[in-house]
Write a structure and sequence with these properties.
mainly alpha
Length: 160
């Protein structure tokens, strides 16, 4: 995961106490410098505005995450049975229909990775999804299709 995404989730997890600490330190510095009350009020207002903006941004991203989570899980639920049959099958060759199903699955995985890489999917959720992807691609016949598909550069650098 990119450092910027990690920092975003770290900041979102701790912004309240960081804002409080910033506010207290700023008030202390302004009073120590004997700044006029309008200056203090302006700085305090700016800090509170930024805190509100961060809270609002966190809420909006949580709504987006929830939407994506529901959509991705619904799409996966529609494929789950087919994937299980492919993985459990004793056949060594992949049929045309199975290949189509696997490409659909890889597209879903690629989209999940893209949104995770952009920071809209919580890291714990991405880890769980990624572990599931690795368990499916551990099947030799799925792995062979993935190897061929990965060469097309169509899956946003999905790491499987």
């Amino acid at each position: 995961m990119r450092i910027g995404v990690r920092l975003k989730f770290l900041f979102f997890a701790h912004y309240w106490w960081l804002s409080s600490l910033l506010l207290v330190c700023t008030l202390f510095a302004l009073f120590w410098r004997e700044e006029p009350i309008p200056t203090v009020a302006t700085v305090v207002g700016a800090i509170l505005s930024v805190t509100y903006f961060v809270q609002k941004q966190k809420l909006e991203e949580l709504k987006l995450f929830r939407e994506l989570f529901k959509e991705f899980n619904t799409r996966y639920d529609g494929m789950n049975e087919k994937l299980a049959k492919i993985v459990e099958s004793r056949e060594t060759e992949v049929s045309v229909e199975e290949r189509k199903d696997l490409v659909d699955y890889f597209n879903l995985c690629g989209e999940e990775y893209l949104y995770s890489d952009l920071g809209y999917i919580h890291p714990a959720v991405w880890r769980a999804w990624h572990n599931g992807m690795k368990s499916i691609t551990a099947c030799p016949k799925v792995a062979s299709v993935w190897k061929a598909e990965k060469g097309t550069d169509s899956y946003y650098d999905l790491p499987l």
